[in-house]
Amino acid sequence: MLSRQVFRSLRAAAPQRAVALRAAPVRTFAAAASSDVKPPIAVFGLDGTYATALYTAASKTSTLDSTAKELAKLAGILDKDAKLVGILSAPTLTPADKSAIVAELVKQAGASGSTLKNFLETLAENNRLGLLKGVADKFGQIIAAARGEVEMTVTSAQALDSKTLSRLENAVAKSSYVGQGKKLKVTNTVNPEIVGGLIVEVGDRTIDLSVSSRIAKMNKLLTDNL
């Protein structure tokens, strides 16, 4: 797990903590946020502000695709490593700690350019590394909009085969749920609690065809009439 690697990096950086370090100047990443680059959608919250700044910087340096892949890889790691989220959010991180963490994150992301590295350094210097997962999610939303993608999440009690997912994708793509010229990005999530059926989420719309939903409606009907 990445949290163990980060702990090792922090231990390796421990000797530097004996040196009195002045706080690094706060970097705003604003130099990249030029008015000539506009994201396709607005995302909100502090993590949205950082995601927008990263999109602007990556656009100006023509590194949108690589940055999206690198950030998505870090988001996947954070999803699987709960301890890492706690490490990134720790208020007691020293400058040496932050440097070690950024180096490890850059390594895990496989970042070859400077865009993501500079951005992570900015988060670290502003004590905002704990926002990384939120930033990744908001950045993903901006990228999807820029690519003309509409996200469709299909929740099922068991994993669906590719043929079934393809049929669903084709059906929804032809519906009014997806705008003209848009393309679907389909994700299948598994939740045994829905018992059976499907829950289809397209953009901000939800189609609940789950067995659990039907049971809940039936229970309510029986309760109301007894």
TrEMBL record:
<keyword id="KW-0375">Hydrogen ion transport</keyword>
<keyword id="KW-0406">Ion transport</keyword>
<dbReference type="InterPro" id="IPR000711">
    <property type="entry name" value="ATPase_OSCP/dsu"/>
</dbReference>
<dbReference type="Pfam" id="PF00213">
    <property type="entry name" value="OSCP"/>
</dbReference>
<dbReference type="InterPro" id="IPR020781">
    <property type="entry name" value="ATPase_OSCP/d_CS"/>
</dbReference>
<protein>
    <recommendedName>
        <fullName>ATP synthase subunit 5, mitochondrial</fullName>
    </recommendedName>
</protein>
<dbReference type="GO" id="GO:0046933">
    <property type="term" value="F:proton-transporting ATP synthase activity, rotational mechanism"/>
</dbReference>
<keyword id="KW-0813">Transport</keyword>
<keyword id="KW-0472">Membrane</keyword>
<dbReference type="GO" id="GO:0045259">
    <property type="term" value="C:proton-transporting ATP synthase complex"/>
</dbReference>
<comment type="similarity">
    <text>Belongs to the ATPase delta chain family.</text>
</comment>
<keyword id="KW-0066">ATP synthesis</keyword>
<dbReference type="GO" id="GO:0005743">
    <property type="term" value="C:mitochondrial inner membrane"/>
</dbReference>
<dbReference type="InterPro" id="IPR026015">
    <property type="entry name" value="ATP_synth_OSCP/delta_N_sf"/>
</dbReference>
